[in-house]
Amino acid sequence: MNQHPRFQSDIPLIDTTGANKVAESTDPMMAMAVGLETPGYDGLAAMGLAFIEEFALMGWPRERISRMFRAPQFAAAYRVYQARGDAFVEGLITQVLGPAPAAPDAQRASSPHAHDEER
Questions:
Q1: Which of 19, 39, 95, 96 is surrounded by the most beta carbons within 10 Å?
Q2: Count: domains in the chain
Q3: pTM (2 d.p.)
Q4: Is the Cβ–Cβ distance between 37 and 43 less than 8 Å?
C-alpha cells in the first residue's frame, strides 16, 4: 500500500473495512450507543428542541409534532416525552413555535361582545 509521504509512519496502518476486516470474537454484532450526561447541559431538552425545529421546517403543524412525541415509533422523541412528560414537551413546542392559537370557542367566549351574541 503506497502512502502519501505526509502520512508515512512506523506504525502499520490496518485496513478495517470490507473484505480486509478480520472478524474478532470481541467485535459487536450491532452498533451500540451509550448515553452520557454532561453536568449543566440538558441533552433531552436540546434533542427535543432539535426535533421540533426539524419537523416544523418540514411543514409539520403543531398538533402533528405534539403527537410525534407520544408515538413509540419515534423512539428518541418518545424518550423525551417519557422522561419529562406532556407539560415539558408542550413547553418546548411553545418555545419554538410560539403560543398555541386559541380554540375558536375560547376566542368567542373571550370576546367583549360574547354576551351580546347570546341574546
A1: 96
A2: 1
A3: 0.59
A4: yes
Q: Provide the pLDDT for residue 96.
A: 97
In which residue are the cell numbers 470481541 written? 26
Domain that holds residue 86: 43-99
Instruction: Dump pLDDT digits (tens) for 35-90.
Output: 777 889 999 999 999 999 999 999 999 999 999 999 999 999 999 999 999 999 99
- Contact (CB, 8 A) for 95 and 49: yes
Q: At what angle do helices 62-69 and 43-57 cross, to 10 degrees?
A: 140
Residue 62 located in a structural domain: yes
Collapse the DSSP code of 13 into the 3-class scheme (helix H, G, I; strand E, B; otherwise coil) and give the result.
coil
For a pLDDT cut of 70, what percent of the chain falls above it?
63
Q: How confident is the model at residue 113 (pLDDT cuts 50, 70, 90)?
A: low
In this structure, the dihedral spanned by the alpha carbons of residues 81, 82, 88 and 93, taken in order and rounded to 10 degrees, is 0
Q: Residues 62-89, buried b or exposed e (16+ Cβ, 10 A)?
A: beebbebbeeeebeebebbbeebeeebb
